[in-house]
Write a structure and sequence with these properties.
Elements: H1 2-11, E1 16-20, H2 29-39, E2 43-47, E3 53-54, E4 57-58, E5 72-75, H3 82-92, E6 96-99, H4 106-114, E7 118-121, H5 124-129
Parallel strand pairs: 1-2, 1-5, 5-6, 6-7
Antiparallel strand pairs: 3-4
Helix pairs in contact: 3-4
């Protein structure tokens, strides 16, 4: 648990993220997470192989197409898609895979660990809510102001 907390604290401060499963549907977490990261000052790239634009921004069909390497790849896709995403993240040069609740895959997480990627299983929306932003810091990602918490039971979450 302590390792997860340290990883959360480290990677929540990374400025460049990709959201795999970003969506235009405001009812989906892929949309909420993408917009919240942008609003919080991160450079965030939407990855969706069915959409050309997400919230007016260019969407990429693969992590391998991004114009820069994200430190963190946030996954909001079904667990069955996780192995492909994790392999792309490694090839693209990402440092960490952030599994949202409900997107976890033990096999993909094991592969990520074995191949030098950090694995985080937590909700980024919860983490951002715990870290209030000082006025006038719109262009910088939040700094950790409180201890992160682990995600709620993923079997109770919905996309």
């Amino acid at each position: 648990m302590q390792d997860q907390l340290r990883l959360i604290e480290k990677y929540v401060d990374e400025p460049v993220w990709a959201v795999v499963g970003a969506s235009n549907n405001p009812a989906k977490y892929g949309n909420r997470i993408y917009l919240k990261l942008k609003e919080s000052g991160y450079r965030v790239y939407p990855v969706n192989n069915r959409e050309r634009l997400i919230e007016g921004d260019t969407a990429y069909s693969s992590l391998l197409e991004l114009p820069e390497t994200p430190a963190v790849v946030n996954m909001v896709v079904p667990p069955a898609q996780a192995p492909v995403v994790v392999a792309q993240a490694k090839t693209a040069g990402a440092q960490a895979i952030w599994f949202q609740p409900g997107a976890e895959s033990a096999a993909a997480a094991d592969w990520a660990h074995e191949n030098g990627l950090h694995v985080i299983e937590a909700c980024i929306l919860v983490q951002l809510a715990l870290m209030p932003r000082p006025e006038g810091t719109e262009s910088a990602p939040p700094r950790s102001h409180s201890l992160p918490v682990s995600s709620p039971d993923p079997t109770t979450s919905t996309r």
